[in-house]
Amino acid sequence: MSLDVSPALLEKAERGEVSDAEFVACVRESLPYAWTVITGVIAEAEGAADGFADNETPPPSEAERGQLLRALASDAIRGGLERHFGVKLAFQNCHRVAVFKKSQVDSDRYRAFVSVRGQLLNQSPELRDC
């Protein structure tokens, strides 16, 4: 299961729409490692002169890796986080998370990060089974 959804939130979803704030709170509580990595990268990017930061540190365990994969592989979760923080998240391998300002999505750096070439250059034997 990707998220720990409270009965109250599930009931609300069954009745209709759930706000992004409620959804993001559920993500934060359900995926604490992913939340820490993503918010850490966002904080780094906010302090960087070029507005870019990425995390290249592999998760300490498969449980944490699973959290990161669930957060970034789900369109709904990733989109909710992007809307909440006003950024574009990019993801490589099973742990490399980058954050871009929305204005950077058309930049050379963004296109290079999400390109086939960028993915291939970010491979190593240590990451084969991640």
Describe this entry's structure for a reader.
With 130 residues, this protein is mainly alpha-helical. The chain has a three-stranded antiparallel beta sheet with strand order 1-3-2, covered by helices on one side. A hairpin with a 3-residue loop joins strand 2 and strand 3. It is globular and about 45 Å long.
In N-to-C order, the SSE pattern is HHHEHHEEHH
Largest sheet: 3 strands, antiparallel
Instruction: Count the beta strands.
Output: 3
Shape: globular
Summarize model confidence as the mean pLDDT.
85
Query: How far is it from the N-terminal to the C-terminal residue, by CA?
Result: 19 Å
> Pairing-aware structural class of the strands and helices?
mainly alpha
Label this structure with key terms.
130 residues, mainly alpha, 7 helices, 3 strands, globular
Summarize the structure in short.
The chain contains seven helices and three strands.
Give the topology:
Elements: H1 7-15, H2 20-30, H3 32-47, E1 53-55, H4 62-73, H5 75-85, E2 87-92, E3 96-101, H6 108-113, H7 116-121
Antiparallel strand pairs: 1-3, 2-3
